[in-house]
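Q: What structure does this chain adopt?
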Amino acid sequence: MSGESLSLSGHAKTVVEDWSSDKQAFNVPWGKFMMWMFLVSDTFIFSCFLVGYMNVRRTTTDPWPYPSEVFALEMFGTSVPLILIAIMTFILITSSGTMALAVRFAHFKDKNKIFLLMLVTAALGASFVGLQAFEWSKLIAEGVRPWTNPFGAPQFGSIFFMVTGFHGLHVSCGVIYLLVIARKILRGDYDKKGDYSIVEITGLYWHFVDLVWVFIFAFFYLW
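A:
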């Protein structure tokens, strides 16, 4: 056997030993890596939804409804367009700030502040879901359905409820996720290892949900 063959054989043996010993290929915690994998796959799903929305809007023969007409709120006897959506957006942006602070205090292992900030983040997320439910009830009361729309193209109702509902589901799951992790941190489940990277992993999910809302806001409420 030549020297080159022996070298290749030795390299293959090293690779097999690395895999069999479950060595970490990259200097990234497995939890963070798997969260990134999940977020990348979720990005494809939301991208397909938004591309489908653009295609339906471009090809439909019926007039597409104006956001200022569909999402106007009656306040003090006058119509205020998009005020509810602006409040919802502000809530999510604020929740990103509180989540970022929680990640910062995780580096100092300050359990009480982490718990409090994650609790505030969850409360803001729950407020967003509540306002979204109010928005849906308003649209349903005005006759918007997945199969019909009094403001114009009937496809608007189906794609609007699908995309915003899917995002709302993510926010709702995120709220539960935040509460569970916050409780485990306060209880001291991560004290033994002294590793609070779970806060950063949770933050990745929450920031992703907030970022997706920026695109939904632009596509559905401004365009």
